[in-house]
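Handoff note, outgoing to incoming analyst
You'll be picking up this chain. Sequence as last confirmed:
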Amino acid sequence: MQIVELGKTGIETSRLAIGTGSNGWNGRSNQTDLGYQELIDLFHFAYHQGIRFWDLADMYGSHPHAKGALKGLDRERITIATKTTARTGPEVEADIKRFLKEIGTDYIDIVLLHCLTEFDWPQRYPDAMEALSRCKTKGLIRAHGVSCHDFGAFQTSAITDWVEIVLARINYAGISMDASPIDVIRTMESMANKGKGIYGMKVMGMGKLDKEEGGAREAIEFVLNLSCVHAMTIGMQTQDEVIENVNIINNLME
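Most recent structure output, in case you need it:
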């Protein structure tokens, strides 16, 4: 699996991340529904296939599973991203302390403000942003950024210097995206030009684009061909899905 740098953040990780949030919210997801040991086993399997990037979130309930999986792996070779829905400074700092315990690590590579929906979010949540900056200064996290579910919020992220990492909804069909692929790509190009790290989600369009033969390859190839997207997260649930996606990426990168 190819190793890439997320923009100019200095964070190097695998091109493909294992997502843990398929249909996820309120403390569960399709991945956590697999069971505690089952998801740990999937983390281990993905790791040995070259996937060294884990996409977690408080709202997915996947922190304990990551903690279990870390016990048998080299922490320094894994990039861990997670997300907080907190919007005040004290709440964010409390979340980071809790996340570190839940994941069983001394630091988290990436923490995102989860599911931003307001175009003026920097004016609404400056305390949350400052709290994440303080956590970075203390070495508790390596980078901070956003996950947006609104095009206005997404555009604001492109012009906000504080944003280092962006989790962006992108696929060729425009399914479950913030705007058309053309508009999203144009915005991501602006982000990438400023050195922000970008990793894509909804690559398979909520599972709608990989139903036909060759669908997964077409969906992944579309995102791989975007120079402004450095990595992608896919919510895999079986070893066969891991193997298929790893093989697609490796074959396309040859």
